[in-house]
Design goal:
This is Vacuolar protein sorting-associated protein 68. It is found in: Membrane. It is a multi-pass membrane protein. It is a single chain. The protein is built from five helices and no strands. The protein has about 170 residues and is mainly α. Helix 1 packs antiparallel against helix 5 and helix 2 runs antiparallel to helix 4. The longest helix has about 30 residues.
Length: about 170
């Protein structure tokens, strides 16, 4: 039985999630978010080529931000997070051979690709749809689906990053 000194909250939670079920649930949620974003891009492309009545269509330009976001997600989540903390000395003065320095540069590139993808989708929405006056009906939805798809990839990467930094004792290592 728990005493009052060992409780975090004044009330007891109706369910108890252990570390492994929380980790697997959030990893599945991350996968669902990514697949939802991919489906949004596919849906916009199918709509554009089949039943779109306007002159605006989804092209490779619309897919470039999603591809950048996907590459950013792959780069960020394929890094060994231990190398970010426990490098060979670390810092700017330890030379270019430092694993920690290299991991931080690669992490910066990954997050830059994620930011480039999300901001690129907003830029495509503004330049391709809003500026040219395609702000009505289902035409603008193709641009908003692009933004939503990149937002899903960004959220998926963030969730996966946070979950992968949780250690066995439920504390964040970064």
């Amino acid at each position: 039985m728990m005493t009052d000194n060992s409780r975090l909250f004044k009330f007891s939670l109706p369910f108890q999630m252990n570390h492994h079920s929380l980790r697997s649930t959030t990893m599945y949620a991350s996968g669902v978010l990514y697949s939802l974003g991919l489906w949004q891009m596919i849906d916009a492309s199918i709509f554009s080529k089949t039943i779109n009545a306007s002159t605006v269509h989804i092209s490779l330009l619309d897919w470039v931000p999603f591809i950048c976001s996907t590459f950013g997600m792959i780069v960020v989540n394929s890094l060994d997070k231990v190398q970010l903390i426990n490098g060979n000395g670390g810092g700017f003065d330890s030379g270019l051979n430092s694993i920690q320095w290299q991991a931080r540069v690669v992490l910066f590139v990954g997050f830059s690709l994620l930011a480039l993808g999300f901001s690129g989708s907003i830029l495509v929405l503004i330049l391709k749809f809003v500026v040219k006056g395609y702000t009505e009906g289902p035409t603008i939805n193709m641009g908003t689906e692009n933004v939503f798809a990149n937002l899903c990839v960004l959220a998926s990467c963030t969730i996966l990053w946070i979950v992968s930094t949780i250690e066995e004792d439920n504390s964040l290592s970064l």
